[in-house]
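Our collaborator T.R. sent over the components below with a one-line note: 'Predict the complex.' Nothing else. No constraints on interfaces, no templates requested, no preferences about which chain binds where. So this is a plain run: every listed entity goes in together, and whatever single assembly comes back becomes the starting point for the next discussion.
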Amino acid sequence: MASTACFMIVSKNDIPIYEAEVGAAPRKEEAAHQHQFILHAALDIVQDLAWTTSAMFLKGIDRFNDLVVSVYVTAGLHTRLMLLHDSRNDDGIKSFFQEVHELYIKTLLNPLYLPGSRITSSHFDTKVRALARKYL
Amino acid sequence: MADPASSNLGRMLTDEITPVVMVLRTPLVEEATRKNGLSFIELLNPFCAFNNIDVPVRTASDQPYRLQKFKLRLFYASDIAQPNIEVAKVRIKQVITRAGEKDFPEVSSNPLAIETVLGATQHKVLPSWFQVFNQELVHTVSFAEHEAFDHPVACLLAVSSKDEESISKFVDLFNTNQLPSLINDGAMDPKILKHFVVVHDNQDGMPDRATKVLTEMRNTFGANNCRLLCINSSRDGSVERQENPWASCKSDGSQFQQLGCFLSLDDVDELKNSMQDLSSKHIIPYMEQKIRVLNQQVSATRKGFRNQIKNLWWRKGKEDVPDNPNGPTYTFNSVEFQIRVLGDYAFMLRDYELALSNYRLLSTDYKLDKAWKHYAGVQEMMGLTYFMLDQSRKDAEYCMENAFSTYLKLGSSGHRNATRCGLWWVEILKARDQHKDAASVYFRISGEEPLHSAVMLEQASYCYLFSTPPLLRKYGFHLVLAGDLYKKCDQVKHAIRTYRGALSVFKGTTWNHIKDQVHFHIGKWYAFLGMSDVAIEHMLEILACGHQSKSTQELFLRDFFQVVQNTGKTFDVLKLQLPVINVNSVKVVFEDHRTYASETATSVKEGFWHSFEEDMIPLLSSMRSNWLESHGKNFTQKYKESNICVAGEVIRVHVELKNPLQIPISVSNVSLICEHSSGSDETNPDLNSSIDNDQLRKLAINGKIGAEASSFLSGEIDLRLGAGETVVAQLSVIANIEGTLEIVGVRWKLSGSVSGFCKFDSDILKKKFARGKRKSKKSSGNYLKFLVIKSLPKLEGFVHHLPETVYAGDMRRLSLELRNPSNTPLKNLKMKVSHPRFLNIGDQDVMEMEFPSCLEKKRSSAEVYVPVKTCKARTVFSFPEDMVICGDSTCLWPLYLRAAAPGNHSLYITIYYEVGDASSIMRYRVLRMHYNLEVLPSLDVSFQISSHPSRLQEFLGRMDVINRTSSESFQVHQLSSVGNEWEISLLQPMDTVFPADFLMAGQALSCFFKLKNCRKWVNAEDNPSSLVPSEKADIRLVCGNGEALFDTSRLPLVDFHHYERLHQGISDQDHQTTVDFILISQSQSDDKSGINIFSHHACDCSVGSSSPIWWLIEGPGTVTHNFAVDFCEIKLKMFIHNSSDVTASVHISTFDSAPTIDSLSTGASVSSANEAGWRDLSVLNDIKVTSDAVGNHSGKLLSPASVSPFIWSGSSSNRVTLEPLSSTEIALQICVFSPGTYDVSNYSLHWSLFGSGDEDDKETGLRLSSGTCEGHSYYLTVLQQG
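Returned assembly:
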């Protein structure tokens, strides 16, 4: 498992709807905003890159020092699953994204969930963290 | 792309990579120029740049071209050395600090909107000092030994005409110990072009001496290389110029007028001419010449196939040379260095092709030699040459990249070179609009030095901004990174500037950590600079940081309050985020015609009250007594539009305050902001509906001061919100004067220092209310706007002593207190109670009596018994007309409470009253009261009744009582049958059945009693209920006497019994076969009121048979007979009783077949079916055993072997007619032929009732009018005599 990893789901208009620090390293206070900054800045790259390829999984599109940003763009291009990581386990990250995407779709199917709103389901959170332990 | 030379980098290169002229002068020269406030170089500098020099040059291959732009760089010999790093650093820091002061943004100006930033041109947005900074950085690595373009091309020797022995001075000047180390070390060719100048100060007299020196020089150094320069021709020092050419060389403020004040126009012309002469006639030809010579040398040694092979061979042989980290040193006469000089000279003379070919040649050599620094330098120049040639972009980038990484590989020594190389590289990329790549190069340049990195990062951020499409988020991110570094180097102003730039990107972002970071730091930095107002403005944004960790929250709050304290004043903040006000939760409780006695009453749905009060309240249409009433229409119109409240009465607003933090906060002075306008403001209703923020602020402050305190009074409360707590604050406002009152918002004070206010958005509220079903018709109005009408009397009501928790059956008397503080009398008071089963309205006269003793039966029969009629239709109780409630007097009215059933119950009481004053728009008001009552189970009472086996009209009953409470003890006091038809008597005295006084928790009690029907036929005109109640309807169950029995026919008990029956769905009519019991018990002792009375009502206990005809067979139980003589005849008697109110005809038919088992079993099932009201009580096991024993007994008798036939010998069919409530007797006879035990039950009774009166027509349809009954079991044993 990667020592540092920050996972985020960003919906339309760049609004984060889910975030989780899934790294094994003890959580640092000052890192939280740094991770957000890096992921936020990486959206600029995603914006360009997403139109140039048909692949959903864009690996290592941006980096900051030793932290790499990988992104999984959903079909609508509105929702982006973003992972900031320092490991190089591309296959694991890809599987992680695919499974989380599936989870996200299940969340979307919930009639009480308003698309684009924050995902507050604790079940979703538990599942994502379990997947992170499994794949990252 | 346009001409590379005209690009930013192109200009930079034509400025920077130009021939250097080394200047050597005597102190007297310097003295002469100082008069103008300038050094010698400063004096010459403005005339060293030529934009249109137009010198013909030939390339090495004799291609002619003309050089248009040219520039010389003049340096003193002492300055031609690698600059001191520390000094350079200090200078760079100065540049930055100065820029920070200059560029510091105005506090008042908001950060630019990102659209504005994007729309502006690059030069407008890009801070101009970047250029200066970059230049300074580049200069830190000038005069490097591995590069030739900083090596002096010529030497300018200046001697003053005042100097003695000028010629020897010239010789002395070019002395080795004064020359720069570059020449002395042998890195540079000391044989350079020399130019000799005599400087003459015209203030010192005529230039005779100078010309003399000049001729002398011409003889010594050659005619061409000498020159006379006359300055300071203007004597008075007041030369005025349009444009001072020296203005740019002195930036730090010394006055421009003084610069060059002694230089006349002739002097300036002379300066200009001499410099042009120097460059065009001496330096350029010299360089051209040198290029030619060098090129020939290089061609001879290195060009051509043979030379290349030789070179390669030779280089390979050198491979065993140990690796020097700086590479081998090359002196000026080494071939490599000559190639380098050739390349650089060619570059300076814009012969880029030649330069490039030489650089290429050289780079392979250096690479083979592993002279990495030289290699990187050459690569760098190659990149620049490629750029200037504007071909092969890839190569340019490749070379720069190569040079950059090679420099970096050298370690710290190469770092500054790498920086310069990076800056040039960036410029190359920028010139080609590859801003994104440029940004990443900037990012790479930023190294150890934090201050330099900060500037680099900031420049990188601008690159992101200018790239297409703009990468705004990257821009913001890099600005923040730069800001952090600035802060690290104490450049707070720069830090604020960058963060403010970032703010334009991050404004309104939902990335909460980012937002907090930016605002918190800006706020802190502004506070550091002492600009508290702005600091607080930013800090306010981060207060609601519930997503942060606790320590961060504490940090934020602590810093915030520190800043606030430092200012020493309180702030009014429009959008204070702490605590979070849930505007949607705002609930307004006000009283118009509906008034509420308590908080809980307000929370009951309006719809409930509406339907509950329907039959009390007059319809709106009937309110108006006639159509001529003038103001009626007007007021109803108003009434519909806005809410009405009465002056002097409280309007309550419930607002939800939430603390999103994990640390407690204290909120004080929470109160409502209101606006009151007296009189009619209907002319401009729009004005009030849209209060903008400034007005709100004004209102909030005004309200605080209390300027309008007279017109309304707004209550203040203090709260303390724990971590994550949500509190509903109940705010109130009282309008004192008629007019219009609008509740605008709420204000509060956080931690006593920051006051916030929040506007209730009426649009949101409107939407919310409009969704509610009941208010749909009012949706157009503003729900926070009230029409204040003049004060009206208001009835206040309170039920005293109403407990919250009682045990089931508890019966109490409560008093309802009614008060009317005003002096206006109220009329037409009516009251309605929602649950008459629980609450009953008493008569006022019982108030004086003592409860419960007033319920006791009077021993003296002197008091005439007045039968009480149960008032069935008493849903609305009207108070007597003569009751006056006004002023200070209060009125107490009795209410009876009986906890009828366990569970939670809501009791509602509404009192309707009319206001005496007819002029008011409100004719009536209602007072609503609501109480919650929790009823716990106490005693379970059940009854079983079966008919007496040997007596007609008598029944045996069993009562089981179990105490269901957990701790309470009860004293079972009395059992009464309702009505006067039944007499109860105990089978055993109570003290044998249950010797203890109290029934403890969980304890059960069962007792047997006898029930006798004592209904007598009376005349039809007599009302059966007017019978004197029999004394025997009640039995005392308590041991000992002394205590009086309670009269169950008194008012509250009767009423409660009535409602109990009503609740159970039993009509009042049918009393014939059912009994109603009331068990009265007392609780052991309640510390407050002595004795509590509990009444338990068991209704409609069936007495065992459903038919109105009761009968009984009587006869001997055992007969001894000698069957040897004859058969035995046994006489039996049957008593029949008609318990109904009508005449009945009974037909008895006997049949001789043996009784079937079936009939017996059905009989058993009937008896079990009669056990209605029985519950399965585990504690009653012993009782069950006894009943089983009875069954066994009968079963034993019924062994089929013992059954032998008998025949009925009397008349086989009897028909009798029975009057109502009368009995008769019929004789029966059977014949038995053998001894044995017989069950004489093989007969049946057919009965039918004659409808006696028409008043019961409906009832008879419901009741059984006829039926057939199987015979009761009657066992007879016949024994053989003898």
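Summary for T.R.: DSSP finds three helices and five strands in chain A.
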